[in-house]
Amino acid sequence: MPQIYYCDMEKFEHLYEECIALLPMKRREKAERKINKNAALLSAAAGLMLKKVLGITDDEMLCYNEHGKPFLKNGPFFSISHSRRYAVLSVSDEPIGVDVEMNRDIDKGIINRCFTEKEGIFARMSTENYLRIWTAKEAVLKLLGTGFSFSPKNFSVLPFDEEHEINGINMRFFVSILGDAPLTAAYCGNNNEFEITELLPEDLIY
Asked: How far is residue 142's CA from residue 135's CA, in Å, rounded to a whole number?
């Protein structure tokens, strides 16, 4: 069963030093390079989830493809996302990508550059529609492992409840929400029974 784990930064913000201290060296340095404390804490929470869920206690355990996507040589597949309040980790036996976005205004520039015509019409109807399209687009690119070297305008994520073939890969979408933050996972396989688990400070630190 695909799994989604998440951390709510409101429950971690008073534990910044503890979170940073528990990270492997490279991820600690990455977190400390962030421009503000919240961004650093998000990066730290993602690292602690990797440690807790996947047993990644050393930076050398991770491999990276030519676009910088991290992966484990012997699986499972995983994907990470974070946005202001939430850090999210998805894990599956099949390829997977995940994205979460806190509410923000519609960005017409992103619509013009990244959305198909039909997606643009749908996205302009509401902020919720816009964020739903954008999280799905990001999740697909994370599953593919290409980043934006493969243009998000090359494919459509609509309708969300149908299977899509994108860049030669069949995938589906799992759509959910964390608080007021839309979340979408793009995944391969037929198992749509995702399990969502919140990880608290006592799960990751103590």
From this structure: 10
DSSP string, 138-169: HHHHHHHT-GGGS-GGG----STTS-EEETTE
CA distances (Å), 126 to each of 112, 119, 150, in order? 16, 12, 26
Q: Which CATH architecture has domain 3-204?
A: Alpha-Beta Complex (3.90)
H or E stretch covering 176: strand 169-178
Tell me the C-alpha distance between 126 and 129, whole Å. 5
The DSSP code for 58 is: S
Tokens at residue 33, please?
A: 């390079």
Domain ranges of the chain: 3-204
Q: What is the pLDDT of residues 104-133, one digit of tens each?
A: 889 999 999 999 999 999 999 999 999 999
pLDDT in tens, 39-69: 888 988 998 999 999 998 877 888 889 888 8
